[in-house]
Amino acid sequence: MNNTLILLTYALYVAATIGMTIWVAQTLYRAGHIFLVEAFHGNDEMAAAVNHLLRVGFYLVNLGFVLMFLKYGKHPADVVTAVEYLTTKVGIVLMVLGAMHFFNMFNFDKMRKKARRHVAEV
User: Fold this and answer.
1) Cα 122 to Cα 62: distance, rounded to the nearest angstrom
2) What is the C-alpha radius of gyration for the chain, rounded to an integer number of angstroms?
């Protein structure tokens, strides 16, 4: 039972965190395009290319963290500790996703402000 519980907990952790990573990446990809088009002075092709590269980097960093973080922590011995283990790990991954989201938003804003300064100078 113990190994089954551990494997089930791991499976739930991986499914939940990969699902959240995909959702956040897609949200950033859709919404970030507008900022990048402005930053690249209406060059939609360049904005799309940069947006795609940012999404790939986001996936690599976050999925790498999710998978590496799997092994940390004491294995759950019963259902209660399994729930605590799962919620703690998912909570930490959510905080990392949030930090990555704000990091991306900060960079989008920097690009947009730089583009506006450039337009004002011309």
Assistant:
1) 39
2) 19
pLDDT tens digits, 20-65: 999 988 988 998 888 888 888 888 999 999 899 989 988 998 899 9
pLDDT-derived band at 101 (thresholds 50, 70, 90) equals confident
Domain ranges in the chain are 2-121
Dihedral sign (CA 25, 26, 30, 36):
positive
Tell me if 18 sits within 8 A of 12, measured CB to CB.
Answer: no
Model-level pTM?
0.75
Residue with the larger pLDDT of the pair 112 and 6: 6
Report the distance separating Cα 94 and Cα 98, nearest Å.
6
